[in-house]
Amino acid sequence: MKLVVQRFDPFVDAKPRMMEYAVPGRDGMTVLDALLYARDYLDHSMALRFSCRQASCGSCGMKINGRPRLACYTQVAELGGKKVVVQPMDNFAIIKDLVIDLESFFEKHRGVVPYLIRADSQEMEKPSAEYMMKPEELEKVLQFTYCIKCGLCTSSCPTVATDSKFPGPQALAQAYRYIADPRDEGGEKRIELLDDAHGVWRCHFAGSCSFVCPKGVDPALGIQLLKRHVMSGRPPRGGGEGAKVWAASVSAPPRK
Amino acid sequence: MSVGGEKAKNRRGIHGWLNPYHYNAERWAYFFQRVTGVAILLYVLGHLGDTSFFVGGPTGTGPSPSAWAFIGSIFENSFGHLILILVVLVLFFHGVNGVRLILAEFGVILGKPSAIEYPYKPKGLSYGQKVLIYVAIAIAVAAAVWAFLVLFEGLG
Amino acid sequence: MKESRLMLVQYATAVAAVALVSVHLIMQGVIYPYATAISFNNILSVYRNGFYAIFLEALLVVVLVHGFNGVRIILNEFRQTKPWETWVDLGTVLAIVVTVAYGTRTVILAVFGGASG
Fold first, then answer.
1. Cα B77 to chain center, whole Å?
2. Could you please report the per-residue DSSP string of A79-98?
3. How many CB pairs under 8 A join B and C?
């Protein structure tokens, strides 16, 4: 099996180059297995990121045969078994080889204030009881909580390719996850943050985010459902009282 | 600044818009919606120009049969008609796909969130809205055939 | 103007454009045979029946607002510096005003202009 890997050290190389490695195939081999074989036996200088090896941590997101995938979750056999081309995920700055800089990604996630906001800041900091949620209310947000922040969706998004201010599908889906959560009372403020020229409206439903998501989060669905609320300016059921404590309790950096 | 600084930024840029390969049908529809939109706007600007010859062009003062005949001599030929058929094709795709986008962006034709199980079939890419892409292509082709019959075969 | 309002305008003009363009094409190829539809005398008579001139003016505004707003969206995604965004927004308004004005001139001269050449 031929493994072709993009190698690039920005402090040494003027541009990326593709290196080929002959990796012995075996049944059930994943792309991560192939990369680790190449790194361990053929080229120790290759840099890549991985951790759990079971599609839970989201560390090994890479562009594999032209599309963002998790290396641990992609079998060599499903790509034809003969040649696998691995490059770093698009739209993230390259640190070295397959390792990319996710800081802007996490910053955009922080920008949608991804935690519950309550109107009563004292109660929010020191709750006296559990916040209750009916099963049918949970079902409305559950799939969006499965996000592992792997970045595949953001890498595949055509808007992220050019618009550096666009939050990206991951942040927008998480914004919907909190706006639609019945326990959250900061919906109005989140909606206000997203209603600008580089907010939710720069999503044009290309759907590639849902296409590549390995956990079934379906960010495209979340974003289209979010648009209704941004259009009306109101979260699903009231939930705007939290805006009053927004400034005091939220220390999220402003979106640039 | 690093040696490979610009390349290190790794933004797809405009290729990200224009490269739907390896992706889903909705991504292809996004690509064609953008391209057809720009094409239609360019045609509309040209159309504003050529229809103004009905009143004598940019310097005219009122209905002018001679100016209209002049612009007709330029555009009313086989090549002009082929362009019109192409315009009808892209127009109908853009319109029907646009309606699909409006319905989808208000969540009308998408599924509802649920407690999902593996293997994941994203409801955002539901069959209902995907079918409308193919309906848009079919309607566009049918409209282009109709335009051909009207312009070349004198139908109507 | 909030982006959600601009998008509402985009959607509203989209739906209106689908309806108005369909009528326009029906006029050009179904109500009248094409050759008749684009003849000088036929166009003069439909312009001067009052209703069609108003219809064409509405079509003009709807299509141009939708089109130039779409281009504004594309250009705003392309680059995100403040000067670029300011010029794109101004350019969009200017483009709409200029093209609607030119098209309206055609309509007004067709309805009210004296015959020439």
1. 24
2. GTSSEEEEEPPTTS-EEETT
3. 100
ipTM value:
0.92
**Per-residue pLDDT, C36:** 87
Structure pTM? 0.91
What range does the domain containing A165 cover?
103-249
Residue B134 distance to chain A (closest CA, Å): 15
Chain C, residues 42-81, CB within 8 A of chain B, namely 43-44, 60, 63-64, 67-68, 70-71, 74, 78
Distance from CA of B36 to the nearest CA of A (A): 15
Could you tell me if A9 and A80 lie in one domain? yes
Per-residue model confidence as pLDDT tens digits over B21-60: 899 999 999 999 999 999 999 999 999 999 999 999 999 8
Interatomic CA distance for residues C107 and A95, integer angstroms? 60
Query: Which structural domain range is residue C13 located in?
Result: 3-112
Last residue of a domain, one of A100, A117, A142: A100
pLDDT in tens, C46-63: 888 878 899 999 999 999
| Cβ(A223)–Cβ(B26) below 8 Å | no
Overall number of domains in chain A: 2
